[in-house]
Amino acid sequence: MASQRSSSSLPLWLASAVTLVAFPWWSAAGEPDFAQAQAVMKEHCYKCHGAEKQKGDVNLEEFKDASAIAKEPEIWAKVVDVLRGGDMPPSKEPKMADNSRDLLAGWVEQTLDAAIIAKGPDPGPPMIRRLTHAEYRRAVRDLFGIDFDSAGAVGMPEDPVGRGYDNLAVALKIPPALTEKYVSAADETLARLFDPKAQGNNLAGAINAQLRARGASPAQMRETARALMSRLLPRAYRRPVGADETARYVALFDAAIAQRKAPAEAFRFMFKAVLLSPNFLFRVEPDRAGATQPYHVNDLDLASRLSFFLWSSIPDDELLALASQGKLSDPATLRAQVTRMLASPKAKALAEDFAAQWLQLKKLAEARPTIEFFPTFTEELKESMRQEPILFFDALRTSNLPVTDLIDSDFTFLNGALAEHYGISGIKGTAFQRVALQPEEHRGGVLGMGAVLSMTSHTFRTSPTQRGKYVLEVLLGTPPPPPPNNVAQIEDAAAHGEAKSFRELLAQHATDASCAGCHKRIDPLGFGLDHYDAIGRWRESTKDQPLDTAGVLPTGEKFDGPMELKQVLKAKQQRFIENLSEQMLIYALGRELRPADKLAVKKIAADLTQDGFHFSSLISGVVNSYPFQNRRNFAPASSTKTAAR
């Protein structure tokens, strides 16, 4: 059976990994060695990061060979980032030639990749996680046919967020206070399940049909309970359930009847036990007995990984049936199931959960522009703004469009209110529709969407710094460090200078040595979007003054306005593709990435690029990645204690 596969898959992994690092861009001219990389560092790096001076507590000169570099991947990954971003060397230092920059960054990347391969693949630590509130809601929907936010109804605290996502296993625990909330959530759910009005092709309809049936004997009711549990438990627990386990739940039904409870109460008692069971609330993958090396996950765990990734919910009957038969991990079967699942309306969860969190749409609720300065910025308009990127991202899925449309596109989704806000005519009503965009409408991609533009603004004006930071952090995955604590806010600095425009004011602020390095990366990107006002409306001027939307990046690219900025971002689309691949893999795995995952990200991005950036290729790349399909056992308790000491 497929569930018994183990290290037999490693040669394929190694072959893929070697392909990524064996043919770097310089291969035609000969691979550089440490001496060549060291020569570049002597010329441009050791002055500030060497034996005599260690800015940022970084001494690159102490690394005497490739093996030493490989032992500190986090430091050297940062070196690559600042080299690729043009942040180092500083502008006051002699310029590093492009070929030297590429040689050093490329050599470091190859060195780190080779070290990962030498260690062998690592799927990352095994995790135990509870369902997120969103997963709980969808699981209840798919089990009972009831779409109800029970977590919100009973006042559960929001799921904690790590690395931007609420499904990271390390944060998904159940403290004692939350246990009581789950009891209340189960009660609220079951109250709706046994509402006499509930009907349809779901458990609620089946139960209430039986309860309404005249003359149903106790034996018939008990058989209904057994039949429902036989159907419910495998779905709820995401695995086959034997007759003995089913019988234990039917015994709860029997006990309630013996206490002269009404049949509805007996059903409720039985189902409540399911909703409160750790088998339902937690995702736990069992260890393989005796395994000391990573191995392929069994088919049932693969089914759960797939369904929670693509649907944020439990596997359906078809997926569970294939997994139970050991067929799901067959590549052709797996490919067909991914295609089927992506076509399901349930896959909109990728837009509602992944995209909404990646694009930080939650911040729109606390967007700083106020009604006082922007009377049309109502809660209704904000909700329309929030829906636009979700519907747009979902269209990438349903039409298998290139993910690069997120940078720029010739369409979006609008309703009447949002179209009026954008100055686009011909759209009426509250329903959203796909709208073809014209160049003169100045939209396309997420940077033309009101949600992003509004939540990166201040109370009464735009914030080029916040907008530039958003581009770096969200789209390119290269966030700037937080500002120093002792730096004055721009508004405070206004009283001490003679700057007349906000751009001049920001330039004054950026002259602070502790600020200049980051602001030269951030501010040009933000000013490129300054044709959009604080709530995302297009404008040609501000306070009767023409806008200055020109910018120059540290790497030398020049642009003026959002359209040219998007062309610059398209030229950097490989960085965008790698970041999107990384973000999707974090979300799919439910954990932060580790150095060993770097090659998986590169493989996903490379395959996505080769396929023309189609959305389905991104999903397939994640599903077929080594960390998604493999795991290792939990460390023995004694090893864990030793490591802790």
TrEMBL record:
Presence of keyword Transferase: no
Molecular function terms from GO: electron transfer activity; heme binding; metal ion binding
The keyword Heme is assigned to this record: yes
PROSITE patterns: CYTC
InterPro entries assigned to the protein according to its UniProt record, in alphabetical order: Cyt_c-like_dom (IPR009056), Cyt_c-like_dom_sf (IPR036909), Cyt_c_Planctomycete-type (IPR011429), DUF1585 (IPR011478), DUF1587 (IPR013036), DUF1588 (IPR013039), DUF1592 (IPR013042), DUF1595 (IPR013043)
Domain called Cytochrome c: residue spans: 25-112
Gene3D superfamilies recorded: Cytochrome c-like domain
The entry's keywords: Heme, Iron, Metal-binding
Pfam families: PSCyt1 (PF07635), PSCyt3 (PF07627), PSD2 (PF07624), PSD3 (PF07626), PSD4 (PF07631), PSD5 (PF07637)
Top-level taxon: Bacteria
The protein's name in its UniProt record: Cytochrome c domain-containing protein
